[in-house]
C-alpha cells in the first residue's frame, strides 16, 4: 500500500518548516545549535518526501510542498556553506612573530594580560571560534 500524496506533502511541509522553527528556538532560546548534518539531513528528507508526493499525484499541495522544501533546503545550505562562514580577511597574527599585547577575561572572569606572562613563562595562545 502506497502512502497518500497528501500525507507525504504535509509531512514534507511539517519537516521543512519544523526544522526552521526548531533551529531558531534551540539557538535563540536554549543557545544550543542544531548541527548542520541534522538540519540539512532533515531538510533533504523533506525534499524526498515532497518529490515522492509529486511523483504520485501532481496536485497543488504536493507541488507547493516540493517548492517550499527545496527553497528551505537551498536557504539552509546557503546559510551553512556561505553566510555562516568566517569572512576571509588578512590575519593580524603571523607565525613566528610575537603576539600583540592584549588584556581579556579568562574562563573564571579574572582579567589576564599577555604582559603578565611575557618573558616569565612560555605562553600558548589558542583561538577557539566555537560554533554559533
Task: Describe this entry's structure for a reader.
Helix content is 52%, strand content 5%. It contains 3 helices and 2 strands. Strand 1 and strand 2 (111-113) form a beta hairpin. The radius of gyration is 24 Å and the shape is elongated. The model has no long low-confidence stretch (mean pLDDT 85).
- Using the CA coordinates, give the radius of gyration: 24 Å
Poorly predicted runs of 5 or more residues: none
Please list the strands of the largest sheet in the order they lie side by side.
Answer: 1-2
Largest pleated sheet: 2 strands, antiparallel
Label the overall shape. Answer: elongated
The number of distinct helices, counting runs of at least 4 residues, comes to: 3
In total, how many beta strands? 2
Mean pLDDT: 85
Helix fraction by DSSP (H/I, runs of at least 4)? 40-55%
Structural class of the helices, strands and pairings?
mainly alpha
Distance between the termini: 44 Å
DSSP strand content: under 5%
Order of helices and strands: HHHEE
